[in-house]
What we know:
This protein is an alpha/beta fold and 176 residues long.
Amino acid sequence: MSVVFGGMAVSLDGYIRSESGDLSWLNDAMAKDEDYGFEATERRTAAYVMGAATYRDVLDMGGGGSTVPTYVVTHDQSLPSKGATQLFSGDLPDLVGMIKRSIPEDKDICIFGGGQLVTQFIELDLLDEFGVSIVPVILGGGIPFVGDISRWTKLRLLECKPFPSGIVLLNYALRA
């Protein structure tokens, strides 16, 4: 059965973006010879779901033309959609159900940023697995990687993988 998973890189003090919006701290921390699981993510993913702000970042970097079905959660219907990208403004449980019916059972759904979208997926109990790559930098402020949650959410550690760069990858299950 398909799994809904997500992941984020986060500063040691819990931010996914600095106050100024600068992401160079993230690129500066990554080492070219370290495998952070990007290829494995691509192999297991049959569909991506991302927030509008993340999608705008992807477009600004010249991306957004993926052949993998990508659903951008937004109310801004003026966003350009390239490749297999579709804009979505309905209920998230409906979106997940529709995607699960349209993909092979041995493939998964990847929630690809941002903090608000991940928070919504946690609140709605739609997220099965969550990966956090802790980057050894302290930003002192910015956009938190998880917003306000109405209840405690207990996690079960699936993997802890440190890298020579100092980045630590933590993968958790959100369900017992």
